[in-house]
Fold each of these.
Amino acid sequence: MADDSLLIVEGVHLIREGTEILHGVNLTVAEAEVHCLLGRNGSGKSTMAYMLMGSGGYLPSGGTVLFGGRDITDATMTERARLGMTLAWQEPARFEGLPVLDYLRLGMAEPSEERVREALEAVALDPAVYRSRNVDASLSGGERKRIELAAVYAMRPRLAILDEPDSGVDVLSLSDIRDLFARMREQGSALLLITHRDEMVEIADRASLICSGEIVMTGEPAHVQAHYCDRCEICDVAREVEEAADYERV
Amino acid sequence: MSVSRTKPVFTQGDEFEAIVRSYERAGGDGKNLLSPKFASMVVSGNQVLSTHELPGLEMVAEQLSDGVAARVTVAPGTKVELPVHLCFGVLPERGTQRIVSHFEIGAGASVEFLAHCTFPNSVEVIHLMEAEVRVGEGARMRYSETHFHGEQSGARVVPRGRILVEKGGAYLSEFSLTEGRIGELDFDYTVDVAERGRAELMVRAYGFGSDRLRTVETIRLNGAGARGLAKSRVAVREDAVSDVIATTEGNAPDSRGHVDCVEIVRDRAIASAAPLVRVTCDSAYVTHEAAIGTVNKKELETLMARGLDEEAAVDVIVGAMLKS
Ligand SMILES: Nc1ncnc2c1ncn2[C@@H]1O[C@H](COP(=O)(O)OP(=O)(O)OP(=O)(O)O)[C@@H](O)[C@H]1O
Ligand SMILES: [Mg+2]
């Protein structure tokens, strides 16, 4: 294992409602690396993201997760975030009455107007227009996703887990996204870029392929991409879980 | 050249200072109560400590055995540029304060009132508010009332409002009790809106401990093209109980109304919302939405993924909802 590994996932199993979803997953992400986790719908990508971030109900039933050399397998989300890990959800939450400005400042170690402006510009949103909008249902799906990316950018995390950052964000071209990620990397962030779109692989340093809750290969992006395009079929397990009952207001 | 009249009725400077301090605790800016630019009235218990009028705006207050009767008149066509500051306070731990008010906003006038009610040491303060309001043709009145009831046991607050909005007039009110304890809130406002008039009622409250809240908002859209919005944002935790009843009636052609209640409940608290819409005219259109639930898990976790602990995350979510 390389010494510069920021994240090390070893043999993680995860059970949801009696069904094992992750079957002994292994994955490493190096400091400031852009690592693409590629997989079809339903392959377990979001489950990985929630597990890594420590979301309620996503505690591994086996295996370990190390972050910056610390065992965080049982750490809370807050602890993980304070160690420098964050997550941009595939379907980000909406907050009634919370201005974009406040939302972006929340995660910043040293909140500054300058950084807020920079973060919004980084996702091609006009700060003058968006800083006072609310992070509520009045934002379009694409705007909300861009604000999520801006919030992650503003936080300057050591590791950003981005769950399908490109879906529904058609205004950002692949080259805009590439620029954004390059800037985040320059600022010292590693990225775990979760996607089912193989063209995203091109902006990664390394890629891993997940299939039915297992990492089936890790290596050169072009190599993993070729394998994915040639061999992977759309599984019949594909199913959205974002609307799952545990995320509804009880 | 405009003249302004100041009537410092009080002699007890200490009491004035104390009330200004508690006014600031309720979110007001004490300077404004002394500034000649702003019209203002300061009432402590049943004493009128000061009134400051402006041209076209008259405030006549008289002492009652248990409070004050005030008559506020804005002459037709008067545009009061800066908000009128009202301060009602009870400084002792116990006592009853009854404010009987009558607002008369002349045709075409516009005015905004910022009222702060403060009972900072309340153990058993009772504050009764009986307001009668007439917003004349094409006039506009905004009334924002913010309360601070101390951190101990809160107060018993009973606001009653009967509001009449004449043709093309607008009445916008906001009642806010989100800092400190509530104690007991029993709010009941009814607005009758004439042709092309507009009414918006908003209540924001955050209850905890053994706080009890009951808010009743009724808007009757009686004139053609009248508009109404009855909105409430309530959060309750621990053993607090809240009951929101918001009614909008569409009684005239092309009247449009909406009822919008959001409540967040935690711990053992109990919240109920009864949005009621009633239409007696086939071209009226009145809608409602009500959502009651605990703090959303995904919202909570999103903030925790930014480094907030659970309690801070809940505070952000509830605070934002109460402001929305
Ligand atoms: N609570 C649950 N109970 C049972 N099965 C679940 C539960 N949550 C997720 N799954 C299943 O686990 C598998 C992986 O889901 P996951 O959301 O991680 O996939 P994904 O790769 O993110 O898919 P997509 O590309 O559609 O976002 C799916 O088959 C899903 O149906
Ligand atoms: Mg997913």
Note: The interface with chain B takes residues 53, 55-56, 76-78, 80-82, 85-87, 89, 92-98, 102, 106-107, 134, 136, 151, 155, 246-247, 249-250 of chain A (CB under 8 Å).
Amino acid sequence: MMSLFDYFSRKKNNTASIAKERLQVIVAHERRQNKQPDYLAALQKDIMEVIKKYVDIDIDSIEVQLDNHGNFSVLELNVTLPDKLPAAKTGNSR
Amino acid sequence: MAKIIVVTSGKGGVGKTTTSSAICTGLALRGHKTAVIDFDIGLRNLDLIMNCERRVVYDFVNVINEEATLKQALIKDKRCENLFILPASQTRDKDALTKEGVERVLNELKDMGFEYIICDSPAGIEHGAFMALYFADEAIVVANPEVSSVRDSDRILGILQSKSRKAEQGERVIEHLLITRYDPHRVARGEMLGVADVEEILATKLLGVIPECQSVLKASNQGVPVIHDTESKAGKAYADAVARLLGEQVEHRFLNPEHKSFFQRLFRRTA
Ligand SMILES: Nc1ncnc2c1ncn2[C@@H]1O[C@H](COP(=O)(O)OP(=O)(O)OP(=O)(O)O)[C@@H](O)[C@H]1O
Ligand SMILES: [Mg+2]
């Protein structure tokens, strides 16, 4: 439900809705991360070191996540490689 | 049975001390024997808001180190019969707070017949904030309608339910969300997160909404907790929050912009 007044004020510059969307993303991400075991951060760093031998990437381009599915867990590894690969060995691992 | 309630936020400067002083005063005014503890070791703000800074002789750390008894350190509030303040020390090392020491003081307060023990947490998620929340039965999480504050509140909520004593015992700390410095005009203009947005993101039961209000600074200038200012919006909103904390059903007020009449505007100008 939106009043006419809300409609016009929304049109201009609704930074509150941007704030809300950003928060939903951050909070969901952080909640997932908080449930992760402590070794994941170290694992992520080690994987980065290995990949760095071949391609120049930074820590943000690697995402390691452990998902619990009842009696089994899935370790998901997501590496985003830079657009221009020097030796173009691989694509995105996803 | 005494209830230990921590007032916490993660982010600094959002209104924890203002809230602690208002809530403890409100509970005492409602007839409950209440103690408020300043966990902000090294800074010490609560005594200023409560206007007892010149009566501080011994502090929380003195009691923990057994340099003074709890009775010697507790300061009786001048305005409320049932209210006592345990001030923080100004100079000492933050690590002076030990789990054993804090637990001993809390147990002693319970034995003295206090019904409510309010713990004013320092900002951050370090040792002092952890000590303030560890023994809590309930938590008032103070948030401003703003991205970094809401995010920090979410982190604190996570810590409450994973690191507190209640969590260690497989129980839950009862959570209350208190949104402060709320400006309904800015919310209506889409410049500020609304109550429903913050509530939805944090998924925590709303205890109250305290509007941005000039009376808060006025109160802190004078050293009178704002809840004593029964004419002010913030004072009324805090009184409502205390009633809800005591289990009463009270409608939320001051959520929408007030449309002032022409005469009201005229008189506000000249007043
Ligand atoms: N509802 C309000 N309206 C206007 N000003 C407010 C309101 N609540 C708090 N303030 C102001 O915000 C400032 C910070 O408040 P306060 O000291 O209570 O925050 P805090 O969370 O205890 O800070 P810290 O993290 O440093 O301990 C103070 O100047 C206070 O007057
Ligand atoms: Mg404070």
Note: Residues 147-163 of chain B form the longest helix (17 residues).
